[in-house]
Amino acid sequence: MAKVKLIDVAQLAGVSKSTVSQYLNGRFEYMSKETQARVRAAVDQLDFVPNPIARNLKATKTKTIGVIVRDISGFYTSKAIRGIDDYCKAHGYHAVIYNTDFASETEATALTALYQLRVDGIIIASSGNNPALIEQYIQKGMPIVQFQLEHDGTEKNIIISDYQQAAYAATEYLIELGHRRIGFVTQDFKHVKSRNERYQGYVAALHKHGIEQDPALIQYWDRETGFAHSIHHILQQGAPSVLFTQHLAITTELLTELNAAGIVIPQDVSLLGFDEIPMAEFFKVPITVVQQEPYQIGQEAAKLLFSLVDKPTQAAQRIMVDCTMVKRDSCQKITG
Questions:
Q1: Cα end-to-end span (Å), the chain
Q2: 42 and 92 share a domain?
Q3: DSSP, residue by residue, 122-158
Q4: Domain span at residue 305?
Q5: What residues of the chain score a pLDDT lower than 50?
Q6: pLDDT value at position 179?
Q7: Percent over 70 (pLDDT), the chain
């Protein structure tokens, strides 16, 4: 079937291409009721669908934003996307979503594609590997807001959780329960500011309560290779009475390892996780967590982006959203 063009509609309706264009853009004040009826009939008869990209190239605003995330299926990410999408719908906008699977090359391709689509702005949970490209598009006039992780501290316009305060409060809670050997299970945090802030909160709470930091209690996890050491090694190294995990993926993999090893929570070791666990209330032992507010973060990211679209020269903002401690049954009190 041949593609119907604007000229085909104009010829059938007996009007100019510009008149059809005015009709499609809702500018009815430029034509009579009879002309409107003829154009509408021609559009319906030919089943004409306007090319949104071609229209966007001529429009000042496309009423569309791009959203780039690392894992669309993630619990945090899906909640954040819902916050973004709800905000967009409430303001007459559409969101185009790209999933990168943590690949910096895919992220770069998504940035380029969205720029070429002439979206009004981009919200991105960055891999941290394309700062120059992101800055390049900002310099070209593309409003960009980042969220979820702050990588090197140079990001402009970013919405994140207050990681340091949340980790501090969680560690202090464990200390108040009597724990002194608190294992900190994390991804490499040396080159990611947000992860390092969690570590700094952990250390600050230990220092406040006069607890000497023990490097043996720091254990590492990698998205590709898993834990650097076995669960038995982790529990023997530094003999932690509680494990404080710093990511939902770490918590879920650790739970699998503990279950396979027959290690019981909280009798054998207590557990506190950063990030809510889906349906945690149905676990045999519900897990205590630091709960982020991804829906709110998504809303705040969209709100800031729209502000940048309207006022591109405004000062950059770094907005932090508080976390909440959800106390359940996985952290036992230490006595004696």
A1: 81
A2: no
A3: EEE---SS-HHHHHHHHHTT--EEEES--SSS--SSE
A4: 64-161+294-322
A5: 1
A6: 97
A7: 96
